[in-house]
Every structure is written in C-alpha cells, then in structure tokens.
C-alpha cells in the first residue's frame, strides 16, 4: 500500500507540474477543468494498472522459481542416494537470479567492535551454513559459508591481542588463507575498478579501493533462504558442525 501511495503522489505531481507549465506558457488547449480532472484520474488509473501488472509478474516469477527448485530437488532425489560419492556437486536449488551489489564502505562488520560478532553471525543461517540431505540426513557444507567462516575466523584472530594468539589459531588462519586463495582463483572476476576518488583527497593517487563499483552477482539471499529451509525441515539431526577445526 505504501508503494501504491508513493506512486500516486508521483503521478499526481507530474500532472500538476504539467498544468503549471501550461499556465506559465499561457497555452490554452480547449479542455475544461472537469476534463483535465478526468484526464488526470485516467493517467493515475493507467499507472496503477501498470504497477499491478508488474507486481503480478513478479509474484509469478517467484512461484516459477519455487516450482523450478522443486523440480530440481525431485530430480536430485531420483539420481542420488547421498551415500559415499553419490551426491550432486552443487546444492540443488536451481538457477540463482542475477542481482547487483555496489561495494560500499559500511560501518558494519568491523573487526572488534561491540556489534562485530553479532554482525558477522547474522551472515549465517541457522545450522551455520550446513545442509542435511538424503534419507539419513547426511551433512554437507556450502562453499559460500565456508568462505565466510574463514573470513570470520581471520577476523577473530585480528581481534585477539597479539600476545594471546595461539599456534593452533594461526594454523587455522593459514588453512583459511589457502582455501580463500583457491576459491577466489576458481571464479576470477574481471570487473574493472578505477582509481579511488575518496583516497585521491588524501594524496593517494594510485590506489584502487573498489568503492562504488557495481558488480553483477548471483542472489545469495536465495541460498540463505534455502539453507534456512533445510534446517527448519530437518528434525532428525541436532549435531552442530563447523568449517574450521577447533
């Protein structure tokens, strides 16, 4: 309803702007005030119809995506029994829609602030990024969440005073660096990033920070939702798993 109201305000302002412009130019189109009012309402009605059609199309797309995911799962269940090597390479959720992310210098996801742990924890669905598949609810980790867990693990080390860091902690960081290095190389992104306008103000004229650059991505929120759904529907498992050895 809020979107509809905003749209009506926009259309009304356009109509009023057109009336004001005609009066300012002293142009008379031979249309009565009543006809002008009717015309204005017709424009708004047409615009609202367009908005409703767009909304309906979006809902149909969501339903189509859900049906597609259901078909993918049915096919996977018929093909694999999730024992030994009998499992798909990818978590079968269907094709992820395209989306965009503009890199920003957010105040969230800090290293050691009071909100840092909560911010980073919010990136993970229930179950920590693991899914349980097949009749025996076999656990599998999702690579995206393994990568995020590694970044969070390195963040935890940086938040630990230097004198308190352990060899085991540094070894886990080393494993994570290797994992992240190879997964980044697995999917090289060729997006061009210009020199930083922000850092130029500080005399750093040959620095690229990537801020404000638009990236074409896959919709990670659908992965989050799918993993959440798997957790919510799996009552046979209670064991917690981790990507990082403790």
Automatic annotation (TrEMBL):
Entry coiled-coil feature ranges: none
InterPro entries on file: UstYa-like
Protein's pathway: Mycotoxin biosynthesis
GO MF, any single term: oxidoreductase activity
Any single biological process term in GO: mycotoxin biosynthetic process
UniProt-listed Pfam families: UstYa
Keywords of the record: Oxidoreductase
Family note: Belongs to the ustYa family.
Protein name: Uncharacterized protein
Organism: Heliocybe sulcata
